[in-house]
Amino acid sequence: MRIYLLVLLCTLVALPALAAPVTSLEQAVNLVVTDKVPQGRDEVIMEAWGPLPAGTVISGVKERVMVTPAEGYVIYIDDYPLANHFHPVRYAFIVSATGEVTVVDANSYPLNIEDYTEIETAIGERLKAVPNRRAPLPKDPPPQFDSERWAVLLNGGISNWSNYTRYWNDLSNIYIALNWVYGYADDHIIVLCSDGLDPAPDQNNGQSSDPDLDGDGDDDIIGPCLPNTIDAIFDSLAAILTVDDELYIFTTDHGSSNGGWNTSQNLWNSQTMTDAHFASLLAALPNCEIVFTLEPCYSGGFLDDAVFPPGPIVGSSACRYNQSSWAMSNMQYDEYVFHWTAAVKGEDAYGMPVDADYNSDGVITMDEAHEYAVIHDQQNEEPQYGDSPRGIGADISLWPASPPGNVEVTLTPIAPPIQIPATGGSFDFIIEIENFETTSETFNCWIDVTLPSGTITQPLLGPVSLTLPGNGLIERTRTQSIPENAPAGIYSYNAYVGYSSAYIWS
Ligand SMILES: [Ca+2]
Ligand SMILES: [Ca+2]
Ligand SMILES: [Ca+2]
Ligand SMILES: [Ca+2]
């Protein structure tokens, strides 16, 4: 009798091990993590859906993933949380009755993401905690030029689930570089970002994108990043731009492959822009100078379409046509555009100085910016570059397209030598600026002083923006007062014309 009972007990114990029913999402997630996530749950992003009846269609944004063979649970697994979408992902299916787990490879996150339950993981929480941040503003920006330089900055983001905070940070960083370092006028920098000015949350941190990218109180985002708004902007530019103008285009966000070299960039509300469409927008413009910098996954697939003769045009991308692009390890910016922007700006988004002027001519040309970004890019991506005519990127920067104007500035002291007593005083001088070109030139003029210690001061006068007609001449007499407490020694008074201290003509 005793023996019989023992056998019965063993049978009862053994049965559940053969077929363990799964009765909760949590159980399903734990099974998948144990069986299929060797790197550990905190290294992946997971979303779970179920229990679902047999015959439920499971779809990613880009594909049909499976039809559930039985009642069970679906767990979406992103093994590469720092890559921009769309990259390889997995869907696990757990049969309710038996706990059997199968995994299907796919390339996109769930179409009906709103039906899924987010599974808390360390990396998922870090991604949502990434702050919106603005790079420090340069201390002495150049005045804005009236020159015909335009910029279009785009971030689609797809949806508020996938519109990572870092995309806004990428836009803010390049906006500050264009406006505060290169003197692009505010109203010549057109920014289309996710849902535009809609106050509804559109970022994965649950917040709405701040339209003010540089924090000066003036909105910079003008509209949503949708096919019709992009087309409307390029239609306007086609009417405004002439061959003497310059256009800079920057895109961050996700991207997709449509097979081979055919790729697209994702826009807001799950819309897309194909490489061919982007190229058609550029083709409709006059043959002005065009530079574009692309961050999305598969963005290398835009170069074969959009870099075309006669140019001048320079394009670069974070990755090849068949590669994902990546966030920085701290997830605050995207890797390639973080370094590219640092190169042209002379400092990175954290204020660390950067020198990408490889030929030491005072100008960061487009080949140099790309080279700097390639050298410093530490993620699993191969940035791409193309220009037409071949090599023209070495002659193009974000400064106005024309080469330095033949404009000279001369300072002449009145009644030299100038000696100022210890009690202070003043002296007079003539400043003369002559344009030796036959066409009009627009530039800045400023004056600084080399102190007896050798230190050069901030500008004492200017920078002021001036336009001189062909062969024009300006001559002015100015008085400089010297305070009593100025240390004794020899002072040099320096005048400059050019764009900024980074780009001096004379
Ligand atoms: Ca919004
Ligand atoms: Ca602003
Ligand atoms: Ca292509
Ligand atoms: Ca250079």
Written description of the protein model:
With 506 residues, the protein is α+β, with helices and mostly antiparallel strands. It has 3 domains: 15-128, no CATH class; 146-326 and 382-394, 3-Layer(aba) Sandwich (Rossmann fold), CATH 3.40.50.1460; 407-504, Immunoglobulin-like (Sandwich), CATH 2.60.40.3880. 20% of the residues lie in helices and 28% in strands. The protein is built from 9 helices and 24 strands. The chain has helices at 2-18, 25-36, 122-129, 165-181, 227-240, 275-283, 303-306, 335-345, 366-376, and strands at residues 45-52, 57-59, 64-67, 72-78, 89-95, 101-106, 117-119, 149-155, 189-193, 221-223, 246-252, 255-257, 263-266, 272-274, 289-294, 313-317, 384-388, 407-413, 425-435, 441-450, 461-468, 473-482, 492-500, 503-504. The protein has a 7-stranded mixed beta sheet with strand order 10-9-8-11-15-16-17, sandwiched between helices. α4 runs parallel beside α8 and α8 (335-345) packs across α9. It is elongated, with a radius of gyration of 30 Å. Bound molecules: calcium ion (4 copies). One calcium ion is lined by residues 212-214, 216, 218, 220.
